[in-house]
SDR family oxidoreductase
Amino acid sequence: MSRVLVTGANGFVGRALCRALRDAGNTVTGLVRRQMPREYGVDEWVDPSVDFAGMDAGWPEALQVDCVVHLAARVHVMLEDAADPEAAFQATNVEGTLRCARAAWRHGVRRFVFVSSIKAMTEADSGRPVREDDSPAPQDPYGRSKRAAEEALIRLGAQTGLEIVIVRPPLVYGPDVRANFLSLMNAVWKGVPLPLGALGARRSLVYVDNLADALVHCATDARAAQQCFHVADSDALTIAELARALGRHLGRPARLLPVPESWLRLAGRLTGRTAQVDRLVGSLQLDTSRIRTVLGWQAPYSTEEGLAATAHWYRSTH
């Protein structure tokens, strides 16, 4: 049994991770900025400070932790409102992460699991699945901040002996999902025609409970120390396959139009959305062989099971 502190415990992934850690017999404390309903059997530490500025001084005297799983972050947003997005991402995702890791080390924590993103590496693969040791080329402020945090944590680990574990998921889906995945579900549910029928590029996804299971292994398995892992479902779907699968589980067949990729790219250029279209039509598959080889990890749920659970949640809210 391990004692694990989860930052961002009341978020989408955080709630799933706290459940998974608890069910595996670990002692779990959630670090959150404001009090909210929490998972049964999970203790709570409320620290309202911005970017973990008060974490070190406010560490509860009785709290003993073996591992911190750091989920809290300024996430990738579609409609950016910060005057300087680069600085905003750096402040939270780099400086805040380092404050959290240093506080953990000072209070005797042995391991720090950093949930990064595949965006710290790239937005598209080069014709083969992306490996952990490929050359990084992040394309936006979010991805650059995650990459900078990875590098800073590795240096901190070398200086202090803190065990650093880096996990890079792709898009995460599951019950309570938001952002682009929810938008796709809304469109399928409403019968909106989607110009996605001709797209053949495949993109890795990860079901939230698969990611949570992998993070439990990263937090508790001695073999994970000083490792970096890509985590994804076993299947990488095309966007058309994803839409059809969602439609099947929602009971609302997806209406897909076979619009050529070249037309979509042209529309992206004309509307100033080239980056968004590139992500839509480009391939991004992850090589997950390292976590399977090093930790013996296998995704406990298939993509079909994950999509079915997500669709069941969606139907229950509509």
